[in-house]
Amino acid sequence: MSDRHTAPQSEKKPFLYVVVCAAGIAGDVGKLITAAQEAHWDVGVVATPQGLGFIDATAVEAQTGFPIRSAWRLPGQPRPLPPADAIAVAPATFNTINKWAAGISDTLAVGILCEAYGFGIPTAVLPYLNSAQAAHPAYGRSLARLREMGVLISSYEPHQPAAGGGADLFRWEEALELLTPELAGGG
Ligand SMILES: Cc1cc2nc3c(=O)[nH]c(=O)nc-3n(C[C@H](O)[C@H](O)[C@H](O)COP(=O)(O)O)c2cc1C
User: What are the residue boundaries of the Flavoprotein domain, all occurrences included (predicted)?
Assistant: First the structure.
């Protein structure tokens, strides 16, 4: 009988961090978790402090089997999640995208993203914002910087402000489509 703790390395699934920001669509993150688990990933969620208020934490933790991370642990406390093999930032807000590109590491979520570059962890970002936010000059510069850093960026186009959002056009599974070839090619 096999024991989970002594399972051969070949059975270990890759671990995906899903970084969730405070965008209106965040409550549907279970869709990405389901798609990733069906594609044989283990998943842990890291939410921004604001993003925590947009998701059903109990449901997400039940689905992933891991605690949601949002704040830094205290020195000496164990790491609640295994290290990431890949990261999907979905949904990514205007705010988090700009801070990440600028290296302003003031939430655990952005701190993990900033370090991911140095660790060489494949990272995909699915922005979700409106066209008024996207018109700010910082946004285009931030995307260009993230692209230079090797971050994979989804094809979603910002929606019209106050138009009810573009939830129907937001493809959660694009995160996996972007990351899978990276991992197959050894990152
Ligand atoms: C109901 C609601 C919906 C929001 N939706 C978005 C959104 O879709 N995209 C976005 O960039 N900001 C959105 N915001 C603004 C962000 O929540 C705000 O900028 C916040 O500071 C982002 O924090 P975070 O990037 O740390 O998650 C929304 C705010 C509220 C109250």
Answer: 18-109
